[in-house]
Design a protein that fits this description.
The complex is a heterodimer of chains A (133) and B (238). With 133 residues, chain A is an all-alpha fold. In chain A, 84% of the residues lie in helices and 0% in strands. Chain A is extended, with a radius of gyration of 22 Å. Helices cover 84% and strands 0% of the residues of chain B. The chains are: A mainly alpha (133), B mainly alpha (238).
């Protein structure tokens, strides 16, 4: 029941996000920006939220709905994999190895660097307060 | 008339496959049953059984593809919501995300060159840790393939959701913020779904880092990727 009542606002908010995204794609074309249109749409939305030109409330329901179901939206692209079966069959093992090694390294670096940074910043904070004290 | 039928059938079938896959995931609960993976297999099977060309299906499913723009715009929401936490740990978080995104992209491209994979695979595999809507737009710009980039991103997501948690513990990454950032930077959307199970901060950090790394890679790739490719080829004497 609650979900049904929220439906009109969700649809309207998605239309609003769609309008922002359309504008972003136009900006990219007009000014020949070196960014994908979708990334421009993200930046534009962020700028609008940050400058309080767009209240979070105005897009929150629709936006969360899209984020929850985002994987539905890329099924059409993923299904195109059927065209690439011969290529993948020939190189499947190598591709799998690349994906696994690069992911493991990525996890290690992101996690460890962030943690090291956190440790450093707390140490600096401690030093700063010690000096003030 | 024909177009309308095509639109209805392709979009409807995708929607049904997605709903069924979500139902299945709720029962099974394993990352291998990730809805996008199962639904994609459903759709591919239907196309194969009915001998439908993929291009006709893609035209029919265009309403879904058109929603990727607004969905990417919606990625600004987690970023905006958690701006305060993020600002407090800005340097550590940004450092982790930048290093992680750069290393994972460079090793993917480097190994792909080393294994002498076809050019189109190399150009697509560099974006395997970029959230699918952005990867789908970036890959063709770098002469990669949309479907391949999205598939690699989904595969990396599933892998991360399966082994990420224990991998991070084994690597000694225990800070919730660092764990969340790692999920989002490497395994994007599917990683974020896993991060949310672990905790609210992990989920927020993951959602934010996938927006941030997506933006960073998108703005850097056109300049950095040709250079990376060139260096890798030189290094491996190709």
């Amino acid at each position: 029941m609650n979900r049904l009542r929220a439906l009109p606002s969700v649809v309207l908010q998605i239309a609003g996000l769609w309008a922002i995204s359309w504008l972003a794609h136009q900006l990219v074309t007009w000014f020949h920006l070196p960014l994908p249109g979708n990334v421009m749409a993200l930046l534009l939305t962020l700028a609008a939220l940050g400058s309080h030109a767009l209240p979070l409330k105005a897009i929150e329901h629709g936006g969360s709905f899209l984020l929850t179901h985002m994987s539905l939206l890329f099924i059409p692209f993923a299904a195109g994999l059927s065209r690439l079966f011969p290529l993948l069959a020939a190189h499947g093992l190598a591709i799998g190895t690349v994906l696994i090694i690069s992911a493991v390294l990525g996890y290690a670096i992101t996690g460890r660097v962030t943690q090291a940074g956190l440790r450093m910043s707390t140490r600096f904070d401690v030093l700063a307060t010690a000096r003030h004290g | 008339m024909d177009d309308a039928v095509q639109l209805l059938l392709a979009t409807g079938a995708t929607l049904l496959a997605y709903l069924a896959a979500r139902r299945l995931y709720a029962i099974v609960g394993s990352p291998l049953a990730t809805p996008v993976f199962v639904a994609t297999v459903f759709v591919m099977t239907i196309l194969w059984l009915l001998h439908l060309p993929y291009e006709r299906y893609l035209t029919g499913a265009s309403p879904l593809v058109d929603l990727l723009g607004p969905a990417t715009a919606a990625l600004a929401i987690p970023l905006y919501k958690h701006r305060k936490t993020l600002r407090a740990f800005l340097l550590a978080a940004l450092g982790g995300v930048i290093c992680g995104a750069a290393v994972t992209m460079l090793t993917a491209i480097g190994l792909a060159v080393l294994f002498r994979l076809p050019e189109v695979v190399i150009a697509s595999i560099g974006f395997k840790s970029v959230t699918a809507p952005i990867a789908a737009e970036l890959a063709p710009l770098m002469r990669g393939d949309q479907s391949m980039a999205v598939t690699f991103a989904v595969a990396t997501g599933i892998f991360g959701a399966m082994v990420g948690p224990s991998l991070l513990w084994r690597l000694g990454v225990s800070s919730p913020l660092a764990r969340g950032l790692a999920y989002g930077t490497i395994s994007t959307g599917i990683g974020t779904a896993r991060a949310i199970c672990e905790g609210e901060l992990q989920g927020a950090a993951s959602a934010t880092s996938m927006s941030v790394s997506g933006m960073l890679v998108a703005s850097a790739a056109p300049h950095v990727m040709p250079l990376m490719l060139h260096c890798c080829k030189l290094a491996f004497g190709q």
